[in-house]
UniProtKB/TrEMBL annotation:
It comes from the Bacteria. One of its GO terms (biological process) is fucose metabolic process. Pfam families: RbsD_FucU (PF05025). PANTHER family: FUCOSE MUTAROTASE. Keywords: Isomerase. It catalyses: alpha-L-fucose = beta-L-fucose; beta-D-ribopyranose = beta-D-ribofuranose. GO terms for molecular function: D-ribose pyranase activity; fucose binding; L-fucose mutarotase activity. It comes from Ferranicluibacter rubi. This is Fucose-binding protein.
């Protein structure tokens, strides 16, 4: 255990989050996502897991240490429901609440068509698979910066 670090953040996930730079992306996926095959095509070249957590739980832990790139761009994306891109399933609403809580303000997610999401995921820094069993529990985040003290 470490002080002030969410206990769900294991060494591999912490290493990946710390190694990412400004503008790098990470994918949080549900259990149905092709995590292994896509994860092998990412920058780190292997999938990571937070298998004992739902997507909202994993994202709450990750956002406790990961800054989002919200001042410059919309930095949280969600996989759109096929045939109903404006539909927002419960899992996505729950994740939206975690994003807003972490950022201290509303930071709406943008929709990403399913196959476009797969293409973006292959270019991500890493893919972290959760234990989320609900459909469309897949998200893309862009890492931001932490300003110097007093800025």
């Amino acid at each position: 255990m470490l002080k002030n670090i969410h206990p769900a953040l294991g060494a591999d996930v912490l290493h990946a989050l710390r190694s990412m730079g400004h503008g790098d992306t990470l994918v949080i996926s549900d259990t149905n996502f092709p995590t292994d095959s896509v994860g092998r095509q990412t920058v780190i070249g292997r999938p990571l897991t937070m298998a004992n957590l739902s997507a909202p739980q994993a994202i709450a832990a990750i956002l406790s240490v990961l800054p989002l790139d919200t001042p410059l761009q919309n930095s949280a994306g969600r996989m759109e429901v096929m045939g109903a891109p404006d539909e927002v399933p419960d899992v996505q609403r729950e994740v939206q609440a975690e994003i807003d809580r972490a950022e201290g303000k509303p930071c709406p997610m943008y929709g990403i068509e399913r196959f476009a999401f797969y293409d973006l995921a292959k270019k991500a820094y890493c893919v972290i698979s959760t234990g989320e069993t609900r459909f469309y529990g897949c998200f893309l985040f862009t890492k931001g910066v932490i300003p110097p003290a007093g800025a």
